């Protein structure tokens, strides 16, 4: 950020964003910046804080967003980046992790899912004819399920994951990720995908967003029961058992109040 100070892609993104907003963005001001950011993309496909570092969701968003502002996103290996970010959405939880082999975190609902609209635009600019014009390239329903059932605090606010405390940071980025998961494009290309009941729709307003709370405690209770049953099912599967008992547990979970509000009783997808 200054001579002799800390250097990473967050600084480059902040500088590019401020320069763009204040209309002082010039080629001379960012000589070599785009090329340096491109060197931060590593063998995984994502972007690290500096060249040679591990790929990370927050750094990757800042790096790609800075290149979009500088109109240099073509310097990245976009296919490799797409492969990396889509692999960060976990099959069972539905939310995103920030790095390989890390736990899901609600804030990455934005840092990771927010990459997909930027990538969609970049690949469309390159003439990719395989792109959908109605859906983003991740499981939007699964992300909504994680945010709505696992990240809401009944007293208000959103959080990292069940068991964590609510805070303004996670409230901001969970809401941002939910908005991405519910809406594709804009204008004539706008498509809406809202999981479950109509009240789950995130509504924009002059003072921010309203999030659904009706039936939240019932749905969270049912989800906890279902997760426990699914875990038991997985343990039986790994042990080579028949699984009849686990099927009964899952059926019981579906009978819990609110258990079918957003499809929490769907069979889990296991990574063998």
TrEMBL record:
GO MF annotation: an example: metal ion binding
Domain Prenyltransferase alpha-alpha toroid: 1-185
Gene Ontology CC annotations of this record: protein farnesyltransferase complex
InterPro entries cross-referenced by the UniProt entry: PGGT1B-like (IPR045089), Prenyltrans (IPR001330), Terpenoid_cyclase/PrenylTrfase (IPR008930)
UniProt keyword annotations, A-Z: Metal-binding, Prenyltransferase, Repeat, Transferase, Zinc
Pfam family, one: Prenyltrans
Cofactor: Zn(2+)
PANTHER family, alphabetized: GERANYLGERANYL TRANSFERASE TYPE BETA SUBUNIT, PROTEIN FARNESYLTRANSFERASE SUBUNIT BETA
Annotated family: Belongs to the protein prenyltransferase subunit beta family.
Protein known as: Prenyltransferase alpha-alpha toroid domain-containing protein
Provenance organism: Meleagris gallopavo (Wild turkey)
Gene: LOC100548337
